[in-house]
């Protein structure tokens, strides 16, 4: 109605109230998803698929590795080239991963 005609004072107040409520709900939803994402560790303990349930870290890793290899196929020979990428030395790596004191 606001796009088609001038709103009455009551309708205008209702529109403002509705927008405030919508903003509040969207903010609450965003906070809810933010809090869910703050979980520091998420682990999958089992996976149900068409051939049954897969359990155990080794079995899950093997299944997902095979799944993605089947999905994307074998890597191209060019994908394993690293000559044109500067590499971090062992010394630099140790400096980067050493705890701050």
From TrEMBL:
Taxonomy, superkingdom: Eukaryota
Protein name: Uncharacterized protein
Species annotation: Setaria italica
Classification of source organism: Eukaryota, Viridiplantae, Streptophyta, Embryophyta, Tracheophyta
């Amino acid at each position: 109605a606001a796009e088609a005609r001038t709103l009455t004072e009551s309708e205008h107040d209702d529109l403002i109230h509705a927008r405030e409520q919508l903003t509040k709900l969207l903010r609450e939803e965003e906070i809810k998803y933010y809090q869910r994402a703050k979980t520091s560790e998420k682990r999958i303990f089992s996976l149900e698929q068409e051939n049954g349930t897969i359990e155990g870290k080794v079995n899950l890793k093997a299944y997902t590795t095979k799944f993605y290899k089947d999905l994307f196929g074998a890597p191209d020979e060019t994908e394993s080239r690293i000559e044109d990428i500067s590499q971090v030395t062992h010394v630099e790596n140790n400096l980067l991963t050493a705890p701050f004191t």
